[in-house]
Amino acid sequence: MKEYQTINEVSGPLVFAEIDEPIGYGEMVEIELSGKGMRRGQVLESTDKFVAIQVFEGTTGIDKKCSVRFLGETLKMPVTGDLLGRVLDGSGQPIDGGPEIVPEDRRDIVGTAINPYAREYPREFIQTGISSIDGMNTLVRGQKLPLFSGAGLPHNEIALQIARQATVPEENEEGDSSEFAVVFAAMGITAEEANEFMDDFERTGALERSVVFLNLADDPAVERTITPRLALTTAEYLAFDLNYHVLVILTDMTNYCEALREIGAAREEVPGRRGYPGYMYTDLSMLYERAGRIEGVEGSITQIPILTMPGDDDTHPIPDLTGYITEGQIYVDRELHSKGVEPPINVLPSLSRLMSEGIGEGLTRNDHGDVSDQLYAGYAEGRDLRSLVNIVGREALSERDNTYLDFADRFEKEFIQQGYKTGRTIVDTLSVGWNLLSMLPKTELNRIDESYIEKYYEETPEGSKVEG
Amino acid sequence: MSQAKEKTIEDGIIKRVSGPVVSAAGLDAKMNDMVYVGDEGLMGEVIRIKDELTTIQVYEETSGVSPGEPVENTGEPLSVDLGPGMLNSIYDGVQRPLAVLEGQLGAFLDRGVDAPGIDLEKIWEFKPIVKKGDEVKAGDIIGTVQETESIEHKIMVPPNFEGGKVKRIEKGKYTVVDEVCELDSGEKITMRQKWPVRSPRPTKEKHTPTIPLVTGQRILDGLFPIAKGGTAAIPGPFGSGKTVTQHQLAKWSDADIIVYVGCGERGNEMTEVIEVFPELEDPKSGKALMSRTCLIANTSNMPVAARESCVYTGVTIAEYYRDMGYDVAVMADSTSRWAEAMREISSRLEEMPGEEGYPAYLSARLSAFYERAGLFTNLNETQGSISIVGAVSPPGGDFSEPVTQNTLRIVKTFWALDASLAERRHFPAINWNESYSLYRNQLDPWLCENVESDWPDVRQWAVRTLAEEAKLQEIVQLVGKDALPEDQQLTLEVARYLREGFLQQNAYHDVDTYSEPGKTYLTFKAIKTFNDEAFKALSGGASIEQIQTVEAVPRLNRIGTAKDHTKFISQLEKEIADQLKELY
């Protein structure tokens, strides 16, 4: 392994060095600091005369005298089943004081695309216990469903609630052979937020079946670009080699994208929208598309990325590109949050693309799809009318309109509102739904098959029977 | 692609690697030549030549490739293999069959592998339709092969052949590389043709299309039809239903052949197509849908350069089937990802960017692509068509961005998807006030003749009612519905049924998912009957509240899902008329 002392430029997170032998694109690099310590990096551009190196741990303290070593291989993640229960830093080094990790295998962290022909279409319902997700935007195994949130909103509570409550109802009864695991990757979140997650994991005993990667707010920004890749490589090993059902939580994707932009700017690339690199869609898809199921393999990867939308603006490039890759999105809503609704999920813009295949007879219940459509239509109508009420007042509205206004209010108070500690089964969720729909005359229920109306419509609706 | 390393012109040496863009020195190459890069032989294409340096876009991940490794030139442009065996197949963006790759590599796509686009060993039963001594020219059909249960594959003289008298042709069992025919010019014909993807296949003449591509979707067939040989764009923000609409078109439209290009989209969506299509039946022939379908899946995490080429691969395959005289429909989902791939590569080449970082040639590339659609007389005098439906994914749902705008300048049908409709689960979420079709007039004669002679009038009534509703809604937002005069309230009521009973259509309902033109027409008519009778009742003295509570009327919304719609509708129309007559 040849050592060079040929650094001729240090610029932001990048180091340029002259070389006299061919270096592979994407190869790992170690930079020995003149004082002490070592930094790791990766080749971003390789020519026959020089290379550009992206340094993960920051370039502070690097000078022209530092020696540069090329390791001859791309970045690998040591993987083993023993990673469960461990806490690692953003570049994969243990920070929990536990024993050295003895890898079963070392995997390239970039990962390769799953052949679409080898995928299995996700259709196993995951019961999160949250009505606004289970009932309206059902999550299935192998899906990638992000939380679109904003600064100061309780997205972490929602993610934790999902991690705590998620089950697959039928398999529990049959005794599932595959176990559930959580891979948690934090990118640039505060130590306090990280503690919130860690405390919850420890308290509920979830830590034993979790692998935690922590890149905190004061850790090097560039490291954030590898943290999710390390996490997903670990998840793939757990899912497709060891048959775990893995839930991957990535938070906060906004910080990840900021790091991408920083590197792009340092390389003087032509920027795309709002200064983010033009290849951000491709880059994000190489993370998100690592969710899924493979035919003939028991395990699965379900992803819940969390991102905070700058200015709550979902046309910002980060949520926008994410929404085009993921299979839906869950909106955490500021208005509902200020009303005290827990969890404050706005179902209207939320969506689960894999819902239609994951619900219905044999999966959840045969009326599920119709009920959800009707609740959507009713709630949307009620919300539209709210703006009208502000102008003309309730008295000016017809009886039908007033019913829809009440419907929308009760929908928020009884269906969405349930608290972070309550888990509802899908049957509970649907009966809350029917209870609300029974406020409306039968003729208004045009999205629901008549036989279901016959069966579930409550002629004399009482208040909600399920505690909220 | 398919062609394994057949000939090498001259090797070059890699000088620089940056993501999917590689520069090499000493390569004797033409623009757009296919090359093999590095020790692993990654597939690439020449995109720039400057002095000593040749710039190559590589269709595979380049990690580990280093300067000093060789580059081999094939001397030929990026081409596809054309021949029997393409239907019922699924390819990546450079026509590598994904099923074969799975067999070779397992579930993950590794790099540096190659497999021919069509099975070279499979035996086909070839039946000649010309005989010895016949004169044939380029493009002529010389025989047939039953490719799938629904499609007969025509074997043609390649368009770049001279033609001549048939010297030898024999019925029998052949592979695609066996010679099935020899001409006196010395040219030998196999069932496999190669064609460069970036050049359109030649035709004789292009015509104005006059027959609709029947999609089975009420809002499309009824209000915004597309012609066989036409072009359409579906722009919409995420979650508004672009992909579901594209899937519906692929499933139910009455084209002979469907080429579905999944360009930079989700892996699971392509899997859905692969899993669901084989189980579905073609409503026309009753045979498996997959037997008329060719899938191209270059998901978002597959290499970006192959995403750039996948729309060309798709349309070239479509042109080949058109040459046989078939009506082909190409679904490209999504053309924005294709444009972004262009942008990504352009920025790595450090080209001067145009609007929003897209290359200045974006508009030219888009129009050249859509121009490959049309109704044609082929070289062999058959008629065939290519219809192209391109999804567009505008950032933030903003239609003023360059890809949407450049697409709208070319296509003649515009189906505008609307997030607010999708939010209230009004599907398909196509905004009827923004969408348009410029084919209406040229398709009307066919619709009058084949469906019902007053189709254009009924449609015009519906369009007018919906436009009226949009206007009235603005007033309602200010003063409330009750402040409107009764006749206007009734218009709102009628428009509501048009929206809920006609425009909405449930893609996941067994019956509602497909509405043949006759049913689409009758649904229009049923709502119009209500309209006419209700207005009569109103002027006869009935009040709007009375009309709103007529028991039979809400059943207009159930027409879509009714099993026997003819009976259902005629009974319903009668009941509505009777019950309304009782009011005055």
Secondary structure elements and pairings:
The complex is a heterodimer of chains A (468) and B (584).
Chain A: E1 3-4, E2 7-11, E3 14-18, E4 27-32, E5 38-47, E6 50-55, E7 67-74, E8 76-79, E9 86-89, E10 105-108, E11 125-126, H1 131-134, E12 139-140, E13 147-149, H2 155-165, H3 169-174, E14 180-189, H4 191-203, E15 210-216, H5 227-241, E16 245-251, H6 253-266, H7 280-288, E17 292-293, E18 300-308, H8 317-325, E19 328-332, H9 334-338, E20 345-352, H10 355-358, H11 368-392, H12 399-416, H13 426-437, H14 450-456
Chain B: E1 12-18, E2 21-25, E3 33-37, E4 42-50, E5 53-58, E6 70-77, E7 79-82, E8 89-91, H1 98-105, E9 124-128, E10 135-136, E11 141-146, E12 152-156, E13 164-169, E14 172-174, E15 179-183, E16 188-190, E17 193-196, E18 205-207, H2 218-223, E19 231-235, H3 242-252, E20 257-263, H4 267-276, E21 293-298, H5 304-323, E22 327-333, H6 335-348, H7 362-370, E23 374-377, E24 383-392, H8 402-408, E25 413-414, H9 419-423, E26 436-437, H10 440-450, H11 455-479, H12 486-503, H13 517-539, H14 544-548, H15 565-581
Parallel strand pairs in B: 8-21, 19-24, 19-25, 20-21, 20-22, 22-24
Antiparallel strand pairs in B: 1-2, 1-6, 2-5, 3-4, 3-6, 4-5, 7-17, 9-11, 9-14, 10-13, 11-12, 13-15, 15-16, 18-23, 23-24, 25-26
Helix pairs in contact in B: 5-6, 7-8, 11-12, 11-13, 12-13, 13-15
List its traits.
heterodimer; A: 468 residues; alpha/beta; nine-stranded mixed beta sheet; 23% strand; disordered C terminus; B: 584 residues; alpha+beta; ten-stranded mixed beta sheet; six-stranded antiparallel beta barrel; 26 strands
